[in-house]
Amino acid sequence: MTYIREKIENKLKQAAADAVKSAVSAGAFQIEHQPDVQLEVPREAKFGDYSTNVAMQLPKEAHMAPRKIAEALTEQLKADANLKGIVSKVDIAGPGFINFTLDPAWHYDVIGEVESMGKDYGRTEGHKGLTYNLEFVSANPTGPMHIGNARGGAIGDVLAEIAAWTGYDVTREFYVNDAGNQIAKFGDSLDARFKQAMGLDVPFPEDGYQGKDIMERVQEYIADQGGKDQVVGLLDEDDDTRKRKLIDFALNVNLKQMHTDMAKYGVHYDVWFSEQSMYDDGEIERALKLLKDKGATYEKDGATWFKTTDYGCEKDDVLIRQNGLPTYFMGDIAYHLNKLQTRKFDRAVNVWGADHHGHIARLKAAIRAAGEDDSRLHVVTMQLVRLIKDGEPIRMSKRQGKAIGLSELLTMVGTDAARVFFNLRSPDSHFDFDLDLAIQESNENPVFYMQYAHARICSILRQLGGEVDLDAPADLSLLTHPKEMELLEVMSDLPNTIVQAERKNDPSRMVHYGQELASAFHAFYNDCRVRVDDAKLMHARLKLILATRQVLENVLGILGVSAPESM
């Protein structure tokens, strides 16, 4: 699907390129290389709808001032029959910018596009046939998910949806860290709490997980086994056996809770990928052998090292420790080779906390060393979030078990508000989440502002829909008010907004677009009555708000937010 705005942009670019050729043929100037025509939208409306600097690319070769070149090109553009009915004015600004003012009639095609595509309006096929893996949240299953996981969930899920709207075949993935040091620490914490629950006076590990959930898992295990009398024998078993039983039970409970919490958040994963499965299936060994065969490793001090410095990094990294156990880095290499080599995703995107930024370069280095194109991997880093209540930050500590969990947050503000607020800023921006604002029914609350626009349109349609046959053609040329034109123009930009949001890995663009669309509708509503004596104008305006409702629904759908019909 090529949308009206893209069609116009393509015609303007072609017309500018043709104007250069025609000016050369007419002897206005001489060049050997055809320039690459670029368009931009001027910041000020007085400079038209589009502008190109093509004339400013040619002075050196044409031996002519850019303004003179622009005059020659403008003469050709004004005579171009292909621009008739599309461009109403072509003029020159500044040192040689060529500005195009469009005929307003192009806006009416937007309504037809929305009507014909409906819930798919905004979709493009630039990535059709390509596979896309998006791994996000991937919280350690050693305790409840926290606010950082909540932001990652909102960012990742919307990024996945945006990618799907650009044609990708998307797989949402959760990487379950069920192996390694954090699981060992988890086992030590559970073991200590179990012994304490059984009446033993034992110290708790200094670096253990101190949250109340650890004791809750232990109590649940005891209850599941039939009470203390039934588990007392576990104290006589060796430490590894006892810890393994506690870990297996607690991991199962925590993972089930993660599934529940993410579903409540509107996030549904296609794959829950177990880190332990790579040990069981021999993928760690295969990845290590591959790197060794490529000559990318060496042995030192009883450990196996990756030659990270050979790939532009500051220091080499350990892959296999002296005790023979793989490092987290080794596991991460195997995991990403599984995505790129075994499952052969065309694009793999990870959403990580900013504290993992230093890990990106060395992981990409390992991917290159293994013979893969590391540009297929992209990491979106997200900054920390502060929760604000009554104007003050809420202090939290995950290690001390004082962090607000995802489930608790959703109970406080609701899923819609959480998903929108966590995407108010680009992922790489620090963000203050105002809990009070998130539940306010005011225009300052972005989710309320967008949803209220949708509900207001539904209310108008309920009141007036019976007076007009909405399926009958309307005379859209009656839509001439500036606020009507502005609303149509914003709607026309949805496909490009989605493409740019995917290209920049920035879901906040969708929230900003939704706010802009809601603002354009509210401005229209304030200036243009829909119920008017002129039946034809009322019909045209009803068509306009019907299209607006559909576009709002599509945007809210991408954000994973409900579109209420009344508020």
- β-strand percent reads 5-15%
Assigned CATH architecture of the domain at 442-559: Orthogonal Bundle
What average pLDDT do the residues reach?
A: 94
- Low-confidence parts, pLDDT < 50 over ≥5 residues? none
Q: Portion of residues in helices?
A: 40-55%
- For the record, the CATH class of the domain at 442-559 is Mainly Alpha
- Work out the helix count: 21
**Net shape:** flat
Largest sheet: 5 strands, parallel
**CATH structural fold name of the domain at 442-559:** Isoleucyl-tRNA Synthetase, Domain 1
| Strand order in the largest sheet | 6-5-4-10-11
Q: First CA to last CA: what distance?
A: 35 Å
In CATH, the homologous superfamily of the domain at 442-559 goes by the name Isoleucyl-tRNA Synthetase, Domain 1
How would you describe this structure to a colleague?
It is found in: Cytoplasm. Belongs to the class-I aminoacyl-tRNA synthetase family. InterPro entries: aa-tRNA-synth_I_CS, Arg-tRNA-ligase, Arg-tRNA-synth_N, Arg-tRNA-synth_N_sf, ArgRS_core, DALR_anticod-bd, Rossmann-like_a/b/a_fold, tRNAsynth_Ia_anticodon-bd. The model has no long low-confidence stretch (mean pLDDT 94). The protein is an alpha/beta fold and 567 residues long. The protein contains 21 helices and 14 strands. Among the domains are: 4-102, 2-Layer Sandwich (Gyrase A, domain 2), CATH 3.30.1360.70; 442-559, Isoleucyl-tRNA Synthetase, Domain 1 (Orthogonal Bundle), CATH 1.10.730. The protein starts with a helix and ends in an 8-residue tail after the last helix. The longest helix is centred in the middle third of the chain and has 26 residues, at 239-264. Helix 17 crosses helix 20 (508-527) and helix 18 runs antiparallel to helix 20. The chain has a five-stranded parallel β-sheet, with helices on both faces. Helix 5 (147-165) links the parallel strand 4 and strand 5.
